[in-house]
Amino acid sequence: MPEQHHLSLTPSQEAERYLENARQILTEKAGKKDGLYADVKYVKMAAGTAYSAALLILDEYLRQKEGIHFTKPKSIEDYMMRLRKYDKKLLRILANVYDELQLAGYYHGTRSVDTMQNGLNNVRQMLSYI
Asked: For 11-112, where are the alpha helices, taking DSSP H only?
């Protein structure tokens, strides 16, 4: 798809696109065997892509809540502090997504299929907030 096409996507559609890209990377490139991924490089790539979807969702959620006062958070702590004011359940989902995708998936390159699937499912849950 040409880049201009993506400018017309809503934040929800854009996050959905990132999530789909992450699933594709895991399915087509990471190679699954015995509940583990074979190629950590692709796990890290997919985790980063899915985590980016989560941040897109959170930015839109906070934009809706804060209106003209919205500024993009600068850190995970900033996201968590601001979410704490609005929705504790979303805050818990974010904590899981951060652990599963950002720390285990992206930083440590987990080979665990379960960890990655939980992370993707949690991001999918976040979509319902925007």
From this structure: 11-25, 40-66, 76-86, 88-97
